[in-house]
Amino acid sequence: MTLPITRRRLGSTDLKITPLVLGGNVFDWTADRDASFAVLDAFVDGGGVLIDTADVYSAWVPGHRGGESETVLGEWLKTSGKRDDVLIASKVGMLPVDGQELAPANIAAACEASLRRLGTDRIDVYFAHRDDENTPQEEVLTAFGRLVDAGKVRVIGASNFSAARLKSAIDLSRDGSLPRIHVLQPEYNLVSRHRFEGELQDFCLQENIGVVPYYGLASGFLTGKYRSAADQGQSIRGTRMTELLAGKGLDMLAALDAIAAETGATLAQIALAWLIAQPGISAPIASATSATQLAELLPAMTLDLTPDQLDRLTDAGA
Q1: CB-based contacts of 28-32 (< 8 A; 24+ apart in sequence)
Q2: How does pLDDT run along the chain (318 residues), one tens digit per residue?
Q3: Is 57 a catalytic residue?
Q4: FRET label pair with 232: which of 54, 107, 164, 168, CA 20 to 30 Å apart?
Q5: Is 193 helix (H, G, I), strand (E, B) or coil?
């Protein structure tokens, strides 16, 4: 049964999503095909709409070349028949096909490859995965514009852009001659806030740019899974936790523990609910390697934290 979840408009676009995005980085990596299908089914059954992937997922795995996540997602779309029930986001720029990362030829070729793997005729949100200062922004936007004009892409976005570069791209599109970036995908969570808060967040609010942050659970740290050096061996992401365990990470876990005791919610639900409540945030991205894990995340979409609880979490990470 679908939960009664209010959909949010994604920035100034006509796309509406629920306040949690499913991350596809784990598909055919830490979640095999069957597990990925189960997670996707559970996400849609739970009311989810937007699924995020990228052409580079998961090129870092021995024996992989990139495109594995999109391939699994495409197989699920075909098998489930749910293409029109979901929105698909993908990215270009970290898996160069030919030349510079965001060179027009690379954008065009990468989009065709992603569409083929996904088995669809359009990508709903197509991101520049990271900035490419070697390619003029006018050329980048022109290349994306061709895809929009051809109906292959509905909305374009930017991931890992600085405030200055996002501003310059928006300025280039103000006269309507080039497509506008409507969505930003930055790193943002309770223990990593400096890349988004401040100038970048303010600009997104000013320009009504939708924001779908990645690493919503800080690679699993905010689930409470890692509380000591001994816990780091629990997963292949454990090595990333050293800095958090040595810094303010344990203070944050203590704050999350206290609010979990008050609400009965899990740490993951609370961490995501804090993100969902932040100004300008459309929906955080979170991934799951099993339907059981995904089922734990879904209640974050309807968890209302009190102003005091939100403030305590914010202060713990300051």
Answers
A1: 28/58, 28/64, 28/68, 28/69, 28/71, 28/72, 29/57, 29/58, 29/61, 29/64, 29/68, 29/69, 30/235, 30/236, 30/289, 31/288, 31/289, 31/290
A2: 344 789 999 999 999 999 999 999 999 999 999 999 999 999 999 999 999 999 999 999 999 999 999 999 999 999 999 999 999 999 999 986 665 799 999 999 999 999 999 999 999 999 999 999 999 999 999 999 999 999 999 999 999 999 999 999 999 999 999 999 999 999 999 999 999 999 999 999 999 999 999 999 998 999 998 776 655 556 656 566 677 777 788 999 999 999 999 999 999 999 999 999 999 999 999 999 999 999 999 999 999 999 999 999 999 988
A3: yes
A4: 54
A5: coil
SS (H, E, C) 8-76: EECCCCCCEECCCEEECCCECCCECHHHHHHHHHHHHHCCCCEEECCCCCCCCCCCCCCCHHHHHHHHH
0.70 exceeded by pTM:
yes
